[in-house]
Structure formats: C-alpha cells, structure tokens
Design a protein that fits this description.
Layout: H1 3-11, E1 19-24, H2 26-29, H3 42-52, E2 61-64, H4 72-78, H5 80-86, E3 90-94, H6 97-100, H7 107-122, E4 127-131, H8 146-163, E5 167-168, H9 191-204, H10 225-249, E6 261-265
Parallel strand pairs: 1-2, 1-3, 3-4, 4-5
Antiparallel strand pairs: 2-6
Length: 268
Amino acid sequence: MTAESTTFSKHAIPDTFTSYAAVGDSFTEGVGDPGPDGTFVGWADRLAVLLDDRVPEHSFRYANLAVRGKLLDQIVADQVPRAKELGPDVVTFAAGGNDIIRPGTDPDEVAERFERAVADLASAVGTVVVTTGFDTRRVPLLKHLRGKIATYNGHVRAVADRYGCPVLDLWSLKSVQDRRAWDTDRLHLSPEGHTRVAMRAGQVLGIEVPADPEQPWPPLPPRGPLEGRRDDIQWAREHLVPWIGRRLRGESSGDHVAAKRPDLMPLL
C-alpha cells in the first residue's frame, strides 16, 4: 500500500455525500464573491454544487451557517450546536482566523479551543474537514502575522491527524497568492479565488473537479510604481481605515448578520 492510499483510507472519505453544512466566518460565508441576489456565494456554495452533481436529483441538502467577523468562541457557541443538530454527512470547519489576526492572541491557546470544537463535531456528524490559514506573505495588512498563522496551521494539521479529518490546506494553494485571487479589500477572496478554493476542497473530498485549482493565471500587464502606490492609497482609504475603526469601537462586520442558509435545504 502506498503512502497516498494509506492517508486516504485513514480519513475514510465516503464516495458521495448527501448533506453538507459549512461552519465558519466571512471566508466560508463567501464575502468577496457577490451573487446576483445580493447575498454572497463563496467557495462553500460552489463546493455544494460539486457535491450535488454526484447524487440523484433533489436528494442533496446544504446549509451554510457561517457569519462574517465571528471569532472561534462565537462560532462554537452559535454554529457548532446547529451543525450537530443537523447531523450532515460532511461539515467544513474553518475557524480561528479572526482570533489569530487580533493583537496579543496566542495561537497555541486558540488551537486548544479549536481542538475541543473538532472533537465535539466529530462525535456527532460524518466527515469533518478542517481548514488551514492562507500564506499571507503578499497581504500587506497580514504579512507580519505569517509566522503566527503558520504556528496555528501546524496545530490544525495535528488536530486533523488525531481526529481523522481531511485538511483543506490553503497555505499550500499557490494559485491564491496571485492578487487576482483577492477582493479589493485584500482580506477576502475574489470570485475566482473562491472558485479555486472550492475545487481544492472537492479534491480533498475525493471528487472530480472541472479544472485544476492550481491552473496558472494569464500574464498580467506590467505595472509601474505609481499605479501600485495609487492602489495602496485607495485601499487604505476604502478598507483599512474602516477596518481599524471597527476594531477600535469593538464592532464586527457580522454584528447584525444572520446565517444565509440555517437549514439543510436542496440547491435550487
């Protein structure tokens, strides 16, 4: 038996899933990927479509409990019990990122709370997919946190090993290090970025995906330093200053936001 097949059998991933619940924050809600009705789409919705394509018509059900801005303890208090109540075949659990980017937080301590949540979920649902953080080397606001994120990622992978969870490893997804994978706020994925994450998630679950998530991007036209500085100034005015303001006021972008799909429902 090869090392690859050993890993696959350890996670015991089913051939098909008939129900899926997504748990998390803005990343999983789909911020940066607006849909035609004003709600966000995002990688989890796109993954749900891939899963739906593999089962008989109308037999697949999907819930997205994620809400932007939520910290790990809020996700554990509000979303994990609901996910357990729904009892889906698969849950994606992406949490802790908002904790890690806050000043003074300890990734080791956050990881301990993350593990308790994974243990709780794994006892009540089918497959639990956990998610690492992105490599932030090219994200101006977050690049100084790269070491902290890497430490947390190491814990996430260790937790996955202990509980037999597949890992959606975003750190290793090189294609999302291109600036076109990110929204203008530089904190959330663009529609194409969400699409590539959805395809990588599909690969993690062992399903066929329509394209390689690491497919190279088309070449970009050259940009001069003046264009870069102009973009930085506009970004700071439109996104950085409001983000800092919310932090100083103790506010969250998700304070008055409800989950977009609180129940397991068929896709339309």
